[in-house]
Design brief:
The complex is a heterodimer. Chain A is an alpha+beta fold. Chain A contains twelve helices and 18 strands. The chains are: A alpha+beta, B mainly alpha.
């Protein structure tokens, strides 16, 4: 009896052991099989030397502490007025990686190699679209490695880069993967896949980051918004090479830690991921020939041309965007910054660019303004101030660091006002001795006023005269009758607004209040944009620098005549030289 | 000699291929980056590499009996120089400046090809040959030129006369003359005699020497001195105020002037004129602290006309900051860039 029991127990133990072993083995096999396609096992890097950490501390406390904070908790003095917020290092959560979702990024203090050192690349190239600048040329390669040695060992507190028991490295093998050619078929399949994989739920039907995800939060509870696929130069992991499809492939494969963006490595094949990356890449704004926009290497944004050309059209100006005249009109990128000169200042500016086209005929000039705004904001009910009021009571919040009531915490709780756009042109610009202009913000004084045309999302279109940044506008009812909104539509995260105004160069119009639009002249023009969900109203808005509206003149006759005259002149000159030479050779002198 | 020339040729060809590739987007245009602050030196170095390369190439071709005539060498190099100025130099320089450099380049080429009578003759020879048209080829060339030149020049003038919409050039004075005194928050400051009240030693006395001893000599990648950490809780005097100034800077100024103080902040790309680059030796390093005080307090609006006050988004900081805060920010800017303010003597 006893014997049998022992035997049984022994058998059971053995069986249990076997099962354990089997599952252990099985799980090992499974994990090798589970390795998502395109990934390989990686090694943890050795810890950096104590000297490097010590040297890195000096770098950190000179350059980084101001945003990332003394303890690396992303709460430096600059943090609260930034959006997106600076990274909190403590938990070891990093966005841009070659490693699987949830894992630490690649960092080796001895190996500053592209594709093998995520943190080094981030510090070197910065994070476009955020306040993190590229440190290349500011810090030496060694200093960059030193500061990272400090950050990864002293400021990452909850995890250890060298702990073999808790940390694994599953590395995206991007160096070995060749991008798939961006054929029409691949892009089409990508377009289907982003719907199938539910990318559009956050990134929106047209990829403008306007999905139902407006109230997304990151791991620290701060407001965060999905990327706008049309602005690849703002992709945080673009590493100053925004049109490179590999960056998108990487982000999509690894996910963005700390944010709601998951890794899609487990439920897509490498082939599918290239299709999606090709599709997303194809959405980024391009020029009329379909070529990537030239990017300014010093700002990582599209290069700016300060002239807004306006083409002439015969007869009525078309209101249809698909019309050939609009399709052919050059589309200009207008960079927008926050209004930070006068209170209430707009540090967290959500509209960073608008796109402008223009056409004119003998009566009117039309501006077509398009800009991405993730939310259509229309104020409910009547606003508590008159449209002419400039110095309205929108409070400017003090920066608080890491406390309740910080700007970032309030980000999605602002009172909603109207989205709006305004075009400001100089009055009497012909009288101004060049290059003098009225002040960019609502004009200088009575002597140098500006002509402001403002459209708001509640459908109103007003004309104002601005005589200074702190003075209320003068409304111009007589003039408003002559203006028209030809189109105002918010579709999938983008506003399309077409505003028509008289060219103002008729005898009977009041030259002291109207901007005089003259063909072939540079007319100083400024754009303002308000995002209603950002609490933008009054002077809290986005502003552009001075641009010029330039109405392209029809080509004058002389352009065809003079070159012919010159060519004939050259022929005569040639004849003279040849004769002279021939005479000289023959020994004749004239 | 031969080895040296071959090396030159190799450098030249490799450089040319790279440059061509970058211009036509075959290799990424960022393959060889222009690093801010080193740009002029980098460009000079590159051009000298090309000169070396061309010399080597010409030597080798001569040795192989396939030498390019002096005439084409001169013209070829000049054209290369013009294209280099147009496509390689970044940020792009205006046409007027390129024309100036182009002329200097042309003079240099002329000096080179007319260095002695022999060379000059060699240079002129092809032109004379075409004019005289003794051979069939030259006759053909002469007719070709007769037709082509008027067409080309006519075409160029047509192109020049076509209405274009290029941005008008406006020249702005970056550092206009400061006034004798300025009134901030109701108090008048005489710029010649005012001092930064926070340049003090740990005992609280004004001490230029002490603050200087806590500034690291300028140079790229400036870092704080060891044991001079303004974030140390025990720091007193100058260093404490540097931290306070830095906090104000990063809450207010870095959006334009940048985390590096190099004028490339988050919003900077949208503005024109672009925000000042404090790490450039031409800005705060050239100026007195009181000049900065005046500029910070009065902002863009306070500029005289030659400074384009209508275009500047620089806030009049007296609306947002106290006098003390302004002085502290200035203290921080000098500490962070490693420059010494200019003094009045």
């Amino acid at each position: 009896m006893m014997e049998r029991t022992t035997q049984k127990a022994g058998f059971l133990t053995a069986a249990a052991f076997g099962v354990l072993l089997g599952t252990g083995f099985g799980s090992m096999v499974a994990s090798a099989e589970d390795m998502p396609e395109g990934f390989k096992k990686g090694e943890l890097a050795p810890p950096p030397s104590a000297e490097m950490i010590e040297a890195g501390k000096r770098v950190y406390f000179t350059k980084c502490v101001w945003c990332h904070g003394v303890d690396g908790a992303g709460d430096g003095p600059g943090a609260d007025r930034l959006w997106p917020r600076p990274r909190n290092f403590n938990q070891g959560t990093f966005k841009i990686r070659h490693t699987a979702s949830g894992e630490l990024p690649l960092f080796d203090a001895k190996k500053p190699v592209d594709g093998q050192n995520d943190l080094f690349e981030t510090v070197t190239h910065g994070l476009p679209g955020s306040a993190m600048p590229p440190w290349e040329g500011i810090l030496t390669e060694e200093q960059r490695l030193q500061v990272l040695s400090f950050v990864t060992t002293e400021l990452v507190k909850d995890r250890q880069f060298t702990d073999k028991e808790t940390e694994t490295q599953t590395v995206l093998n991007l160096g070995q993967l060749q991008p798939k050619e961006a054929t029409e078929e691949s892009i089409k399949r990508g377009a289907e896949l982003v719907v199938e994989k539910k990318c559009v739920e956050c990134h929106g039907m047209e990829g403008r980051g306007d999905g139902n995800a407006f109230n997304l939060k990151d791991d620290w509870g701060f407001s965060i918004q999905p990327a706008d696929w049309r602005k690849c130069w703002n992709f945080r992991g673009s590493r100053q090479d925004p049109y490179n499809v590999r960056n998108i492939f990487r982000t999509f494969s690894t996910g963005v830690n700390g944010t709601p963006m998951p890794s899609f490595a487990d439920n897509t094949s490498v082939d599918e991921r290239w299709d999606i990356a090709n599709f997303v890449n194809s959405l980024c704004e391009r020029d009329t020939l379909g070529k990537p926009l030239p990017i300014d290497p010093l700002t990582d944004k599209p290069k700016i041309n300060f002239v807004i050309p306006s083409d002439p059209v015969e007869g009525e100006i078309p209101t249809d965007l698909e019309n050939e005249a609009w399709q052919k009109a050059p589309k200009r990128y207008v960079a927008m910054g926050g209004q930070i000169t006068h209170k209430p200042r707009n540090f967290v500016n959500r509209i960073d660019d608008i796109w402008v086209r223009s056409l004119y005929n003998d009566q009117h000039i039309v501006y077509l303004v398009e800009w991405d705004d993730r939310t259509k904001s229309v104020a409910e009910g009547k606003l508590p101030w008159a449209p002419t009021e400039v110095n309205i009571d929108v409070k400017e919040q003090d920066p608080k660091t890491g406390e309740e009531g910080s700007i970032a915490a309030h980000q999605n709780n602002y009172t909603v006002y109207n989205d709006a756009i305004a075009i400001q042109t100089a009055v009497k610009w012909k009288d101004l001795p060049a290059p003098i202009k009225p002040r960019y913000l609502f004009g200088t004084n009575e002597q140098f006023p500006v002509d402001i045309v403002k459209w708001e999302a509640d459908g109103s279109l007003h004309a104002f005269l601005g005589t200074g940044w702190d003075k209320d506008f003068q409304q111009r009812y007589d003039y408003e009758e002559n203006m028209k909104v030809l189109k105002a539509e918010w579709k999938n995260g983008r506003w399309y607004v077409m505003i028509q105004r008289p060219v103002g160069n008729k005898e009977d119009q009041d030259y002291d209040e109207d901007t005089f639009f003259e063909v072939g002249q540079y007319i100083p023009t400024i754009f303002f944009a308000w995002d209603g969900h950002n609490g933008d109203a009054g002077r809290k808005m986005a502003v552009s620098a001075f641009y010029y509206t330039f109405m392209n003149p029809p080509v004058p006759q002389e352009t065809y005549i003079y070159p012919v005259v010159i060519a004939v002149g050259v022929v005569l000159l040639e004849g003279w030289v040849l004769t002279r030479r021939a005479n000289k050779k023959k020994g004749k002198t004239l | 000699m031969k080895a040296l020339m071959s090396l030159g040729a190799l450098i030249g060809v490799a450089g040319l291929l790279l440059l061509g590739g970058m211009t036509f987007d075959i290799v990424p245009s960022t393959t060889i980056r222009l690093v801010e602050g080193y740009m002029p030196m980098q460009l000079l170095f590159e051009v000298s590499c090309y000169v070396m390369g061309f010399a080597g190439l010409s030597y080798i071709l001569n040795a192989m009996g396939m030498g390019i005539p002096r005439f084409w060498q001169g013209i070829g190099f000049w054209v290369f120089f013009l294209l280099y100025l147009k496509y390689r130099v970044y940020p792009p320089i205006p046409f007027s400046v390129r024309a100036m450099y182009g002329t200097v380049g042309l003079v240099a080429v002329f000096m080179w090809i007319s260095a002695n009578e022999d060379d000059w003759k060699k240079f002129k020879q092809p032109i004379m040959n075409v004019l005289d048209a003794q051979t069939g080829v030259n006759k053909l060339l002469r007719y070709a030129y007769l037709v082509l030149l008027p067409i080309l020049i006519g075409g160029f003038s047509f192109n020049a006369m076509m209405p274009k919409s290029e941005e008008p050039i406006e020249l702005r004075t970056v550092h206009p003359a400061p006034p004798a005194s300025t009134k901030v928050h109701g108090k008048t400051y005489t710029l010649q005699t005012s001092q930064n009240p926070y340049r003090v030693n740990p005992e609280g006395k004004y001490d230029q020497e002490y603050s200087n001893s806590n500034i690291v000599e300028q140079g790229m990648g400036r870092l704080m001195k060891p044991n001079a950490n303004p974030w140390d809780e025990n720091s007193q005097g100058y260093l404490k105020y540097v931290r306070e100034g830095g906090e104000i800077f990063f809450q207010n100024c870095h959006f334009c002037h940048g985390d590096n103080l190099n004028g490339r902040g988050l919003h900077a790309f949208a503005f024109n004129p672009i925000p000042a680059n404090f790490t450039d030796p031409g800005t705060i390093a050239q100026l007195q602290e009181t000049f900065i005080f005046w500029r910070v307090a009065k902002g863009g609006i306070g500029l005289p006309n030659e400074g384009f006050p209508w275009a500047s988004v620089m806030p009049p900081w007296e609306q947002h900051l106290t006098v003390d805060e302004i002085w502290k920010v200035i203290l921080f800017e000098y500490w962070h860039t490693g420059y010494y303010p200019r003094t009045w003597d």
